Amino acid sequence: MAEDRQPQNESSAWRLLPSSPDAAPQLGLEPQTDTQPQTPPAHWRTRLSQTMKAAVLVVSGVALLSGVVTGCAKNAGAPGSDATPGGTPGTTATSTAKPLGDYVIMAWQTIGMKCTSDNDKYFSFHTPGNDFWAQVIKRGDPPVIVTDGIKLSYEAPENHNEPSKTINFWDYAKITLKKDIQPNTGKTGMPADKGEFTLDKAKKAWTAIDIPVSPYNDDGKVDAYPMFAVRATDAASGKLLAETKMSAPVSGELGCYICHGGTPNKDGVGLSDATARDILADHDKNVGTNLLAEAEAGRPQYCLDCHAANNVNAPGKPDVLSMSAALHGKHAQYMQNGSIETCGLCHPSSAKGQVYCERDVHRGFGMDCMNCHGTLPEHAASVLMKQKDLPAAKKSLERLKPYLPEGFTEAKPRENWINQPDCLSCHTKDHTKASTKMTSYNQWITEKPHLYRFEKADNGDMMCAACHGSPHAVYPASEALGYSEINYQPKTYQGFAGPIGANGNCTVCHLNEPADKNYHHKNQGQPFLPPQFANDPK
């Protein structure tokens, strides 16, 4: 990473949060009754120890560059073979990769799961808009990142071209966003079916921002991981140079109905009118607004007009809690059971749902949401502390005190969607081992350019996500629930699901094996052993 941030090495501070006798029901989760912070249970200490050893390999096998269209690489282990996947030196393996051409494309989405509401009739808060990034490599010695002379385009899969059939965003956008947006185009005018990337010169990457993708296909079937085609063509002749596929994760799996009543719209996904009405009724009661009456009069509101959200550059109002602080701060008072099931009540991470977005390599090594983000009360405290002078923040922080055994003042103020954990929150600077504290809570990066999804390797201009994959979907990602193409690029280029370039597969981009196998970051030449994802839903 470009920024010289030091990993944290404090001893583990595991927290099992107590429940308040005055708190709301625990929503079917087992309440915690202890009043003091505890050390991890024995099985957790074992799991963390194993995770710390295994996590060394997550970053060790990092890629050099990455590839696209056709992808054969040296020593690629075939699925089901006795050889170590990716071909550890000394093994014999049959490659399942395709032959490489002159160019390769690495394409990814900037967040591992784009949450999108299918119902804006009462309010709008999760508008459609997936962001695609890509880098195109001219293979050679050395390889070259291509920034001119080409056109890069995307195309939605068949039966995933008309999101306006399944979500009603466009019916209300003129009211909520005060913009007349044509059906099946995004807020920036990007079309849903096909379009072109533009060059970000500073990043040497191509971007297609705000593509409207529905959590359903055009027939209304839940499809959380549609695979988009990405193609590079010669700008002058139109000749196809390379092509690949990338996942465009999108979810409408909202758990609001669990507390607010109503039902999901379809197959556990979607926001019903009944649920939306109850949410607005509670908002009116708690804040003194008149949102329900406004919505029923045909004037639904855009939540981010008041509540800031840095992920979509919504400034909000300075005297109002950010969207993240408002939602987490309020709900943490009633959902303080210190488990990952709590996260899955609202986020599409539950193994019992239709999406299961918690699927990247870290999950395979036994980690979960809380290792990076803390428990729900801890997560809430961090964003509330950023606005601690606001009366609403003070009230929420005071109510969270019983669920923060070490005191909420330990939470470092965090700007929503910017001050996030990253690789070096846990992994040491030389990428050789994990630190002794397997949590990145309170270890935030300080600036947006250093977010993992925008960060570059130590040397050169390759972006980290080009070789490692999207946040929350870092290679190899779980293929649970039948989404077998989620690791399409590494499988296509090198024959196994793992960081692109891992286990001696430098020839995805290089014509010959380079002498320095640690060029992009230290220790990347070490063997990568993929996890098993044994506990994932089928």
Automatic annotation (TrEMBL):
<dbReference type="InterPro" id="IPR036280">
    <property type="entry name" value="Multihaem_cyt_sf"/>
</dbReference>
<protein>
    <submittedName>
        <fullName>Uncharacterized protein</fullName>
    </submittedName>
</protein>
<feature type="region of interest" description="Disordered">
    <location>
        <begin position="517"/>
        <end position="538"/>
    </location>
</feature>
<feature type="region of interest" description="Disordered">
    <location>
        <begin position="77"/>
        <end position="96"/>
    </location>
</feature>
<dbReference type="InterPro" id="IPR051829">
    <property type="entry name" value="Multiheme_Cytochr_ET"/>
</dbReference>
<feature type="region of interest" description="Disordered">
    <location>
        <begin position="1"/>
        <end position="43"/>
    </location>
</feature>
<keyword id="KW-0732">Signal</keyword>
